[in-house]
Design goal:
The chain has helices at about 10-15, 30-40; strands at about 20-25, 45. The protein is α+β, with helices and mostly antiparallel strands. The protein has a domain at about 10-45. The protein is elongated.
């Protein structure tokens, strides 16, 4: 899995003239999207995520094997 250093892509995009906002709280995303659409210029929304978060497994696939010490919650093993 790729892991990058924390880079403020919003600051980079802003320096290049684009509308840019950094979102660290998922509750702020709808407002960031509205601002980007209203800006009437190219926009970058830099969304900070948890590198250890795993997406839901595709339907019918095998369950994930979680790293030691991590659990996936009640649906981690998937249901069949």
């Amino acid at each position: 899995m790729w892991k990058f250093d924390d880079v403020d892509l919003a600051a980079v995009a802003s320096a290049l003239g684009a509308f840019a906002v950094r979102v660290e709280d998922p509750n702020d995303l709808p407002d960031a999207l509205k601002q980007a659409r209203a800006s009437d210029r190219p926009a970058v929304i830099d969304v900070v995520t948890d590198v250890m978060a795993l997406p839901a497994p595709p339907y019918g696939s095998r369950p994930y094997v979680f790293p030691p010490g991590r659990t996936g919650g009640k649906d981690a093993e998937g249901s069949r």
